[in-house]
## 1
Amino acid sequence: MAVKVLVIGGGTGGTLAANLLAKEFAVEIADNDIQVALVTGSKFHVFQPGLLEVAFEGKAPDTIVREERPLVNRKVAYTEERVERIDLRKQEVLLASGQSLDYDYVIIATGSVPNPDSIPRLREASLNFHTSTDESLRIWHTLKQFEKGRVVVGIAGVPHKCPPSPNEATFLLDDYLRKTGKREHVSLTFLTPYPRPYPAEPLSKVVEPLLEKRGIEVVTFFNLESVDPRKKELYSLEGDTIGYDLLIMVPPHQGADVIVKSGLGDRDGWIPTDKQTLRINGYENAYAIGDCTNIPVSKTGVTAHLEAKVAVNNIVSSIKELGKLHKYTGRINCPFEVGSGKAAFVVGSYEMPVKQIEPTRMRQLMKKGFERVYWRSLSGSLDWLLDRYFGETDTTENMS
Amino acid sequence: MMEAQTIIKPETIVKPTIIDSRGTMCPGPITDLFRAYRNSNLGDVLELWATDPAAKSDVQTWAKRSGNELVSINDEKGYVRIQVRILRKGVSR
Ligand SMILES: Cc1cc2nc3c(=O)[nH]c(=O)nc-3n(C[C@H](O)[C@H](O)[C@H](O)COP(=O)(O)OP(=O)(O)OC[C@H]3O[C@@H](n4cnc5c(N)ncnc54)[C@H](O)[C@@H]3O)c2cc1C
């Protein structure tokens, strides 16, 4: 009987994991000794960093979306259906159609979802560039109509994916308002629950003077409690009130519905996962990667990519009895646009606190360049290049 | 603005809610604290355990700014224990 490896979720982490497994086990798959399967709930794959450009630069949404199937290696058994329940003890998942799939090894990569409903009236009050191309496009259309008043951009709750994205949105919005000559009639406020504009101090030191120079007001320690869309007011848990004319908040995120329903997550649906081996706590054959874990690193595509490699290497080691255990170093590397065609990067790991990196045009070009290579990076064929760029992202231990 | 009403007798002993953020770097500890703050009630004591050196000053500044009480800061072996009593938390209107 073939050894079955199942990947759940065809986003950044899951697609790469399935493709790497198909490459690793090409011979075994052909010989029917191993089956690699991917089950995913969506026909389409969104390059999520592009949601910022759709919202604040009017980029066409179809340029950041592709069909998932062609991104997946033909050797992968592909199923496009929502998973309803995951049973790690029985090693079985139940699909929406009622069909069930069993496995020997599983990688869960179901991502994270913004949950505006966790804050009273946030959904009706705020635009949002973290959900879909449609929602991002709604921001672009609204901005075109917006002439004057106070725009509040910020973080409605934590955690959320891509930590720099609320700051990036603010800078890109400022760029847009300046380019269109509306800036002098618009006041711009950045709202955050954190003590400073960017939570990690070294990068906040980079961002603070830029915000000041652009006349962007910063309100810190504002944990959003609720919104009154009629009065156009925001209320914080700390007891403060702020008014707005246009609101663009990043909602707090939670794990995917299936994780909550399957009882695999903590209160917010994050899967308790070993931050190095990426094994789900208590299981030798079950892994979680990307946004869906409770690992203390930022929820980014780069993280999902690097974690996919570690989980795949551990499964390969186990099946081929190589006696090696791969461990993720917590390496993060997230671009951080600061407007005017410049970007910094958020770089760190479990052992290395985030560094102070100055924004440059070159770094912005690197960010834009990545957009072009993203689709190819999902096949794993660019890892020789990415490995050089990232340096050591995992360590290997001999188990014997 | 809504004022939070709190009457907490000093002799009231509340079992702290432990938030173990050891091993997480900024913004891990303060993120975990805010998640707990969201789910807390007035009078609750939140106890944050952190290895991140930024946690001490971040929590101190937040407590001061938000009107919550910094009960104690204790340096343990390799980590810090910070207790905050929730005295102020806006109420949904
Ligand atoms: C505005 C914005 C900007 C960003 N910018 C950057 C950036 O510059 N750099 C960066 O590295 N990251 C960035 N990110 C973050 C990055 O996109 C995510 O962190 C990354 O996509 C996470 O990968 P993942 O595989 O964990 O989840 P996802 O890519 O979100 O994929 C999850 C998959 O699981 C599937 N799924 C969920 N539930 C089920 C179910 N029940 N059954 C079957 N399938 C299911 C979904 O359909 C989806 O295919 C940004 C995100 C946003 C929103």
Note: Chain A touches chain B at residues 120, 157-159, 163, 193-195, 199-201, 220-221, 223, 225-226, 228, 235-241, 267-268, 275, 296, 348, 350, 353-354 (CB under 8 Å).
## 2
Amino acid sequence: MSARLLPFAVTCAIFVLAYGLAWLQFPAILSTRVIGNLLTDNAYLGIVAVGMTVVILSGGIDLSVGAVIAFSGVFIGVMLRDTGLHPYAVFLLLLAITTLFGLAMGAVIHLLEMPPFIVTLAGMFMARGAAYVLSIDSIPIRHPAIEAIQSAYWLMPGKGRLTLIAGLMLLTVAAVTLLIHRSPFGTRVMAVGGDARTARLLGVDVGRTTVAVYGLSGFCAGLAGVVFAVYTSAGYSLATVGTELDAIAAVVIGGTLLTGGSGFVPGTLIGVLIMGLIQTYIVFDGTLSSWWTKIVIGMLLFGFVALQKGLVQLRTGDRAARRRAARQSGRHRATA
Amino acid sequence: MDAVLEARGITKLFPGTVALDAVDLVLARGEVHALLGENGAGKSTLIKCLTGAYARDGGTVLLDGRPVAPRSTADAQALGIGTVYQEVNLLANLTVAENLMLGREPRRLGLTNRRSACREAARMLADYDLDIDVTRPLDAYSVAVQQIVAIARAVSLSDKVLILDEPTASLDAAEVERLFGIVRRLRDRGLAIVFISHFLDQVYAISDRLTVLRNGRNVGGGPVTEVDRLALINMMLGHDLAQAESGHRTRAPGNGPPAAQFHDFGRRGRVEPFDLTVRKGEIVGLAGLLGSGRTEMAEVIFGIDGHDSGTAEVSGTARRLDSPRAAIRAGMGFCPEDRKTDGIVADLGVRENMMLALQARRGWTRPVARREQDRMVADYIRRLDVRTPHVEKPVGELSGGNQQKVILARWLLMNPGFLILDEPTRGIDVGAHAEIIRVIEELCDRGMSLLVISSELDELATYSDRVIVMRDRRQVAELAGAEVSTGAIVSAIAAAPQQRTAP
Ligand SMILES: Nc1ncnc2c1ncn2[C@@H]1O[C@H](COP(=O)(O)OP(=O)(O)OP(=O)(O)O)[C@@H](O)[C@H]1O
Ligand SMILES: [Mg+2]
């Protein structure tokens, strides 16, 4: 097992183990119905966490995404209420806006050499503020086209429903996995996250990559906003407070290093599912407060940071061994 | 002359420093051009200005007679200028193949065609007899292998100009020879190659012409055959080299009480058990090829890799040296060979970097008084001739050789009883070289004991009281007193192994 995929393997093992334990207690939890709900309930989080994964892989962070989701809901609500635009047109407009917003943050981060933490924190305030400006009240979102999306699903064996928005989330995970782990762009993201100075000397356009990464995160946040609006049938400027932190937690639990340059996109999906599973368990139990979710996630995060620390140490030890082996073979080559 | 690249009046300013002051560099087709100068002369800066890594503040660059102004290293690559920057400059978190193909990945349907990328990468390395798994992360391999990968990448990118900034610093003799074979082949194909090195032997072996910089200005150059070694050193330093290096040193060899003693000390798979005694005030040299176990021996002694056999005594008391902390507490110091990963803290200033080891030994609750710090730092800046405008300058902004001096100063001013130096003069210019050797000898006269690992055998022979030769992870010879000479070390390294236990 390569040390790179070990965190992912551990995440998967934890998920299976946790699911198994829950199943021992509540056999009903192992059904496609529950799984379908798990995916649907966490669709927006999954999409936004995937965008966050890319940002973190590039060595940055995006704190604006929770606010962007809230803005998206309000924007959709207001546009549908006040204009005659078709929802699909509104969605496209919104995605353009959030993508541009992300691109702009990326440009500021690169051109002004400002820390992503600060720039996206400012972005968070701006997006949340824009949502308030549009509407303070919760706006209902109703439209036949949206109802069609809400009721679209594929019936899985066992009567579970894979909804359209859950499918959209899985599709996003798959697309971004390909983009990051199989495309030249992904290699650039990893390069910038590994060491931006060196990447620049090797001819990587660090600025373009940075801007694109935040643009992608903005797009994902917008898409998550659409999904959240469809899922809740409402737009509310106070919604999804702190979602950016949930997303970061899912990324870390999914085995991506916060320092950038190392990680695996599908791990984030498992991270999201672990968080969703805890919530589902609490619902099944019925007596536990939902705040337990937070506590368990806190403990998991802690465990993962410790695990990664251990792995890094393991790997440096391993590296020394491999370095020796390589030297040895180099010497044999030289004498051959 | 058929000039490929013609740089005129290149000027580069950093806050508080004129790094380059109207420097000219003309490269002819099919030549190897050595770029020389002391640490901080501006060699690396000139390269970075030519390849767009830095924006230049003045001057023109003509490539094949047309003015060019690469604004990024990607532009320079597109123009056919491939570069290996000083230090290994690849990405440790990517695979070997990704590093080699970064920026020109073969694609299929918009995605990277990994199979053909790996095939291409392996083909690029085949020229260097480097048969490694290109799908492994780069940091799985030694610095030397990484260096060769960096060179292979640069070579494959250059159609017109190849720039090598101290490419040989971490290569052994055989690897250098292989590199030179490739450089000659490229030269014969018409490439212009810039070669930067402090190893004058290598400069004379490979170059056709040279350009010398001092303090950011051109001070001379011409065909190699017309500039002899002495004239070259004069040009670089601006004065004669003090005759410190000539001849074996005269002071009495250390014969005080043992400062450190190791019996049957070793670790399986790293270094065979050895016996070693270093006396107070003695300099013991450690010679051998890359991979012979020199660095491993030092790392085991210093507790970086705990030993699994034998005992150690430091200044007469038995010690368990199973971690660097324990070693430091026992009064030992270790200046490692890989300064980029194990050494400098790039964002801290010169003073803080120099004080790190001493402060760590005293513990953070007992800070060294600021005035005391300033005195010590100023002293070492002067003695090692560290070129820095002021003591708070971030070390990352110093030239490569000056960074090395800062690390060396860190350990020297900690003044441990027993100090291990791994390649202390790597990347250091001829002038400072002599200076450093003088400082080392002086410290020994004051009672410090040293174990010095070096690939520069002349240097080792100059100051060592004894030289231990390693091969295949074991001590194979020990030369003492009058036996210590470059020739004797070379023959001990090359001598056929008496007996081989395992293949
Ligand atoms: N990024 C930077 N910021 C400020 N000053 C710099 C920077 N890079 C280099 N310098 C300064 O420019 C001068 C030339 O440095 P350069 O790295 O070109 O030297 P060099 O000739 O390559 O030396 P070496 O042989 O030690 O590698 C030095 O005085 C150095 O301190
Ligand atoms: Mg340099």
Note: Chain A touches chain B through 36 residues (CB under 8 Å).
